[in-house]
Amino acid sequence: MNVQSIDSARFSATRGAASAAPKGRVRIIDAVKMYGVQGGGVLAVDHCTFDVPPGEITVVVGPSGCGKTTLLNAIAGFHSLSSGSIYLDDEMLCGPGKLKAEPGPDRIVVFQNGALFPWKTNIENVTFGPIMQGAMSRAEAYDKARAMMADAGLRGIETNYPGEISSGVRRRVEIVRALMNDPKILLLDEPYRALDSLTKSVMHEALLEIFYKNRVTIFFITHDLEEAIFLGHRVVIMTTRPCKPKKILDIDIPHPRDYGVLTTKRFREFMEETAAAVHEEAIKAFDAGERER
Amino acid sequence: MSETKLSDLAGIGARQAERGPTADITSWALTMHRWSQWLQSPRPYLMLIGFAGFLGFWYLAVEVWKLPRFAEMPGPTQVFGEWFSKDPTYGLSIFTPEYYLHIWVSTRRIAIAFFLATAIGVPLGLFLGWSLRFKQYVFPVFELLRPVPPLAWVPLAIVMFHGSETPVIFLTFLASFYATALNTMLGVESIDVSYVRAASCLGAKRWQVFRHVIVPGALPFIFTGLQISVGVAWFSLVAGEMVSGQYGLGYVINTSYTMVRYPTIVIGMATLGIVGYVTSAAIRLLGNYMMQWRMRELSLGAAR
Amino acid sequence: MNRISKGIDRAVLFITGENFWRGIVSIIVFLIFWETGSRSQALFGFAFPWVSQVPPPSAVALEMFRLIQQPSFWVSAYLSTARVFEGFFAAMLIGIPLGLAMAVSRTFYGISFPVFEVLRPIPPLAWVPASIIFWPTQEMSIAFVTFLGAFFTIVINVIGGAQSIDVRYFQAARSMGSSTWDIFRRIILPAVLPSIVVGATVGVGITWAVVVAAEMISGGGSAGSVGGAAGGGLGFFIWNSYVGGSYTQIVAGMISIGIAGYVSSAILRKVGAWMTPWLAEG
Q1: B229 and B99, same structural domain?
Q2: Spelled out in words, what is the top-level CATH class assigned to the domain A3-287?
Q3: Same-domain check for residues C263 and C148
Q4: Is the peptide bond before C97 cis (omega within 30 degrees of 0)?
Q5: For chain A, what is the largest distance between any 2 Cα atoms, rounded to a whole number of angstroms?
Q6: What is the pTM (predicted TM-score) of this model?
Q7: Residue among A128, A153, A161 minimizing CB distance to B9
Q8: Cross-chain CB nearest to B257 (options C110, C122, C129)
Q9: Cβ proximity of C234 and C249 under 8 Å
């Protein structure tokens, strides 16, 4: 075992000890979001209620423009709700009297087109969170960053800029950047949408590997049903806009999973169960003429 | 179970090194590389053809064919003869100290006006872009004064500021200030909101977001604005010098005309062009240096 | 019909929204500051540094009111505007084809662009004496300098616009059997139009600046102020007001030029928007 692995093991252990009970349980209760003004508005989220269990991967699937990103933004604190409430563990993030949550390092977002700061090197990006919060000294932050990056197979690119590495690698750096802050929940907004399917399959396995090491709650949005069933403990299928959970499935395929899972019988059964529902919504969305955002 | 775990891999950096251009190239090497590419293309030779054509036409029109329209114009031999002569007929060449005095005076005015304009314009632009409330208060007044062209301010400036230096510098400052502030504001407004959101998620407070996201994110636009700003500054400076200044390149051009020293006019114009170009290029190079990340991104990704 | 109601809607929102009032407040504050500053000697017993030399807005407003009733003022305004549009259209007429040629032919670009770039940093006003020597009449020399002002901006914008046309448009057209002329007319021209509009809007502002400057420098073509013989344009008007010591006229003239410049840009922007309907928000 080399030094890097020992360090990373130590960090994982401390994390594991501190979080004996998994954190990051999100409850969405009757959330409604209306855009626009006085009577001429657009309903994006229509009385959504569902739970995101802690320590698990919950995937929300739905056609483009259905309002799932709005939900994620409400959890993250970028958008307000028109009514309803969202709870994280036992704390109200937003609800009556406080329609907009505050963004914070307990709920970190990984963005669709990537939001690594292009003007900072990769390691400067990764250490950004802890340094801004003053949670640890620069030296400590850099040490931890180097260990976590090595853990994720990203050794050697610390002093490069994001513009110099491929987009798949950039995504991974962004996830490490998020994990540096010990978030309760990781919010992923279609992060692999822009990648080709070969890179995507590598990314999926990478994400799962990271998840197994850290057991952080993950809330993942996608339009790709296969991706959803492959990754998720729980899959929530949304209707087209305004979105509302149409079907919720608990995927009982055992973890740890790898790409061999895709050809198993159980996987195909899940696909059959859900494909019709998703397709129905997709047709409705197409008819409604959703523009790609 | 996967055969290899990602953390077992040698590291992405090592593998990219095998594949091709990496970030280990220094910026200097990158510049040299692009330089040599340029020399090998047809472009330097086309450039020479262009200049030869231009100078050739000028020479022929004035001195050989003696076209009527060009009758009173000085030809290239006259101009270059004067410019590079040890004892110029009209007193101004690269060997006379007055020449450099005028260049220095103009450049000094530009420097003062430009630095003032940047020192005030960049922060103002940053705040205009960052705070909607601030913009709503300040921008209308800003826009109110903008359409007045720089030279229209000359009489008022002379009335307001006594002396002959200050009005000229004020003019130059004004034009430069507007260009800088506007471009900076645009720069802030075009920063992808995802960066700001990411920073808030990661626990940055508002002032930290400003310092670590807004300022670096707007930098490319700021530098474009600065280049435009320096160009506008020269424009206004020359106008100001021609109307009410002493010394300076604009003054040289104007007096050369009134004293019928035509070759010196062209010398003045050419010098202006060179100095203007140099100042603009200096800013661009400074920008490239400060935004290493952009240069690398463009070099390694772009085909051109 | 729908567009009209949408337009009215936005106007109402703009006026009653916070946006509008905040701007009004600061403009009022600015005017108050200006007024008290101008009169600071009388009001406070000591003069503010620079503002006190400037005539107060009240006096300027009166002067403007007086001026717009004088036909000679409008003659000046007309002269300046005519010069602006002469030079501007000449710049478009020559600049757009030149820019397109440079963008389309790499050889032509290689030959002409360096010369272009060498001439560009020379401020248009520096050309005034050379222009006077070269052109037979003063009008033409001013027109030439005005032309130069807008020309460089327009060419740069056209080249930029043409270079950023996605190559796939060409491939698509060719695969559907378009001739070169067709490609030019249906792909290059429309794609470059937005850049031309941007170049034009910026160029017109520069043109105004150059016209005013040229008028002030070259004496406006004929002697006389607004009250006298047919004036030499607004720039000359301002200069004359300065020489004649009438400071309120100076400021009134500046404001007139500002308004004229703003209106020209606005007109161009509207025309540009009309010519590129596909850019409008959905």
Answers
A1: yes
A2: alpha beta
A3: yes
A4: no
A5: 65
A6: 0.79
A7: A153
A8: C129
A9: no
**In this structure, is residue C236 part of a structural domain?**
yes
C11 burial level (CB within 10 Å; 0-12, 13-18, 19+):
exposed
Q: Answer positive or negative: Cα dihedral of C114, C120, C122, C125.
A: positive
Task: Give the structural domain span for C215.
Answer: 55-276
Instruction: Test B23 with A160 for CB contact under 8 angstroms.
Output: yes
Write the pLDDT tens digit of every residue in C214-263: 787 766 433 333 333 334 788 888 888 888 888 888 888 888 888 888 88
Residues of B in contact with C27 (CB under 8 A): 140-141, 144
Look at residue C2 and tell me whether its pLDDT is greater than 80: no
Residues of B with CB below 8 A from A105's CB? 201-203
How many structural domains comprise chain B?
2
Q: How far is it, in rounded angstroms, from Cα A75 to Cα A206?
A: 25
C266 interfaces chain B, CB cutoff of 8 Å: no
What is the residue extent of each domain of chain A? 3-287
Last residue of a domain, one of B38, B58, B73: B73
Neighbours of B2 (CB within 10 A): 14
- CA-angle at A180, arms to A175 and A186, nearest 5°: 50
Phi, psi of A33 (to 5 degrees): -135, 125
Residue-wise pLDDT for A14-73, tens only, equals 444 444 567 888 888 888 888 876 566 788 888 888 889 888 999 999 887 778 888 899
Say which residues have a Cβ less than 8 Å from residue C49's Cβ, sequence separation at least 6: none
Contact residues for A36 (Cβ-Cβ < 8 A; gap 6+): A42
Domain that holds residue B186: 79-301
Contact C254 B153 (CB under 8 A): yes
- CB distance A47 to A84 below 8 Å: yes
CB of A228 closer than 8 Å to CB of A59: yes
What residues of chain C lie within 8 A of the CB of B281, using their CB? none
Q: What is the distance in angstroms between the Cα of C1 and the nearest Cα belonging to chain B?
A: 31
Decide if the complex's ipTM is over 0.85: no
Residue A28's DSSP bridge partners are: A50, A86
Chain C touched by B56 (CB under 8 Å)? no
In a domain, C191, yes or no: yes
Tell me, yes or no, whether B160 and B226 share the same domain.
yes
Q: Which two tokens stand for residue B137?
A: 């208060």
- Pick C22's closest partner by Cβ from B73, B137, B159: B137
Interface residue A12 vs chain B (CB under 8 A)? no
CA C20 to centroid of chain Cα atoms: 25
- Cross-chain residue pair B154–C216, CB shorter than 8 Å: yes
B4 lies in some domain: no
CB A103 within 8 A of CB A78: yes
C10 in the same domain as C149: no
Does residue B47 sit in the same domain as residue B125?
A: no
* SS3 label, residue B44: helix
User: By CB neighbour count within 10 A (0-12 exposed, 13-18 middle, 19+ buried), where does B42 fall?
Assistant: exposed
